[in-house]
Amino acid sequence: MNYSYERVSTTKQDERRQELAFNNIKIDKRYLDKVSGKTKDRPELNKLMLDSKAQDNIYCESISRLGRNVDDLRYLCSYFKDKDVTVHFIKEGFNTKGDMYKFMLTILGAVAEMEREITADRVREGLEKAKIFGTKSGKPIGRPETTLPKEFPKYYRRWTLKEITAVEFAKLLGVSRATLYRYIKHYDANLEK
Fold this sequence. Notes:
Number of helices: 8
Structural class: alpha/beta
Helix content: 40-55%
Radius of gyration: 26 Å
Number of strands: 5
Strand order of the largest sheet: 2-1-3-4-5
Order of helices and strands: EHEHEHHEEHHHH
CATH superfamily of the largest domain: Resolvase, N-terminal catalytic domain
Number of domains: 2
CATH topology of the largest domain: Rossmann fold
Distance between the termini: 64 Å
Strand content: 5-15%
């Protein structure tokens, strides 16, 4: 039988992204866990471990969906290999047939683990900066405030009176239209205050 094992980190995440990886593969049964990679208890993975039998195939979108870390990946792959079950990693393009997979698993698993740790560190650092500077999530930290060119109000008035077009307005300021519209949005927001 062909099984797929999928894992999303939260109940809000959309698992369909992983399904796309299995387009050309006939999957007989799906196992989907909606838990963080840090969580040890993955009920669907536990069921898959019990349900899989010799000659079965398990397809994972990537190694990061199966294991929490390199040790976990190696344990799970060894467990399935001992049962004569082949695990296929679509994104990385290898499976557990033969012995070469151990090398690939160790290297790619270590890189995935390091990426996860770096991302977690960056999130923590961002939250600490937000606490220090009193900013809210999503607001820029350390970026300068938007400053408008001196002649902006004069041209803005002409633009609102339809004396000049947005293209002419942008050319007069020497900026792109995207920048011009960002300036207009900033200017309008400050007028309302």
